[in-house]
Amino acid sequence: MDSQQVFTYGQQGLYLLLMVSAPVLLVILGVGLLVSIFQAATQIHESTLSFVPKMIAAVAVLAIAGPWMLTTLVEYLQRTLTAIPSAVG
């Protein structure tokens, strides 16, 4: 295994991490922005008001996109594990 293969596997892993985590992070970012605008408009500064909608949104996104995330991660792991013998030998 040369350094180019190591960098390629690392790059694929980081890209996969970004791709799998992006839906949850973007939805939570959007919900947080909406809640912050609501809090600024109404001057209600309750900490649970910002936490609960984010948690509900995260669970909803994981329920919807969770199977895709899991399938993508399992496929990457299978590709990586099956490539070990050719990389070592």
Key traits:
89 residues; mainly alpha; 92% helix
SSE layout:
Blueprint: H1 3-42, H2 47-88
Protein architecture, described:
The protein has one domain (about 5-89). The chain has helices spanning about 5-40, 45-89. Helix content is about 90%, strand content about 0%. It is elongated and about 65 Å long. The longest helix is centred in the last third of the chain and has 42 residues, at about 45-89. It has 2 helices and no strands. With about 90 residues, the protein is mainly α.
- Give the uncertain stretches in residue-range form: none
Mean pLDDT: 91
Rg measurement, Å: 19 Å
Range of helix content: over 70%
Kindly state the number of beta strands.
Answer: 0
The number of distinct helices, counting runs of at least 4 residues, comes to: 2
Order of helices and strands: HH
Query: What gap, in angstroms, lies between the N and C termini?
Result: 8 Å
What class, by secondary structure content?
A: mainly alpha
Instruction: Give the count of structural domains.
Output: 1
Largest sheet: none
**General shape:** elongated
What is the beta-strand fraction? Answer: under 5%
